[in-house]
Structure formats: C-alpha cells, structure tokens
Amino acid sequence: AQSVTQLGSHVSVSEGALVLLRCNYSSSVPPYLFWYVQYPNQGLQLLLKYTSAATLVKGINGFEAEFKKSETSFHLTKPSAHMSDAAEYFCAASGGTSYGKLTFGQGTILTVHP
Amino acid sequence: DAGVTQSPTHLIKTRGQQVTLRCSPKSGHDTVSWYQQALGQGPQFIFQYYEEEERQRGNFPDRFSGHQFPNYSSELNVNALLLGDSALYLCASSFGAGELFFGEGSRLTVL
Fold first, then answer.
1. Tens-of-pLDDT digits for all 111 residues of chain B?
2. Contact A106 B99 (CB under 8 A)
3. Spatial contact of B101 and B94, defined as CB atoms under 8 Å apart
4. Which residue among B33, B41, B101 places its CB closest to the CB of A106?
C-alpha cells in the first residue's frame, strides 16, 4: 500500500531563513505528488504538484519541491521564510499516475519566529 | 465562481447518533471525494463518488456511507457515532480524475 512519511512533525525557523520540509513516499511506480498547506480552521490549499513532468516544481508563495526518484523524496523548500508561512503542511501521493485517491502524510507544523 | 462548499461547519453529536454532512462541488466538477482528518493527523480517504456511484473506498467501516445527487452534490452519512469519529471532514471535488479542490470542512464533535 502507498504510504507517505513526513520527517519532523514540527519545524521552527527564523523569518528570512530557509524552509525545508521533508517528505518520502513508498511506491515502486512514481505517483503524482502534492504539497498542501492548511491554515487554522481552514481546508487544504494546493501549493504545488509533481505529475511526471519537470522534477523541480515551482508553486505558489515562493515554494518549490524537487522530485528525486532515487531517494523516493519530494522535499518542500522556500529560500526565505515569511511570518505568513506559519501553517501546517501536508505531503500527499496519488495511487498512481492520476489525481485519484490521495494518501497524506502526518503533517508538519511550521513555526516562523521573528 | 464558488468553490467547494460544505455544511454545516460545526456540529456536536452524542455517541450512537447519526450525522449527515453535505458538500456542493466547485462549478464544472462532477466527482466528489470525502476525507476524515482527526486532530493532529493527515486526512484519510473515505470514498469517492462519480456518476452517483461509489467508485473508490478507503478503509472505513460500513457505518460510513454516502450519496451523490444528479447535480453532483454529495452527502456523507455516519451511523452509530463513536467518540473516535470526532474529526474534521473534508470534501474535495474534481472534474473526473483531475486536480482536487478542497472545501473548508465540517468539524464533528462526538460526546
């Protein structure tokens, strides 16, 4: 069965510092991969997605992620954190090369301090 | 253009009761998926409806059932509520197997 692992349930950075949120998936066939952001008491907003095209994917709000098949990873980065980036981030994988059913990781809470 | 709308936003039930949650998909979308997000966890897939039929189902008991109407809106029903059913229930819509758009969820508390 497909699984998604996010390393680190909490990440804390200073404003202006690099943001790195880690995600690994388990699948013999590279699935579609996604990063979502969730602000308190809100639904999920798509940040970016990998759908077997370019391995470096750029998303909204300055975030990007790199798909590495050899490492089965899809880590999320942002060069300079902003206070408004504080939220919970979820990595997700589809069941195959389509959007379909998503399997989510446990989430990483990002805290940004001045 | 309205996005995915869910109702109610919050509700409280007691153990053993039944609950119905509603979802209106984004305009132009014909597929609705439901997810359960327990506190501190990632969302878990419950099921997906397309053409008024359940197309895929996650690992949830039969107490969880759903329906899709001809206008593509959907309901999630949970019978015989347990304390562990307390969660945020998210609805997502798509056009076929396309990108998912999520609503803001219905937060269910079971006492």
1. 679 999 999 999 999 999 999 999 999 999 999 999 999 899 999 999 999 999 989 999 999 999 999 999 999 999 999 999 999 999 999 988 788 899 999 999 999
2. no
3. yes
4. B41
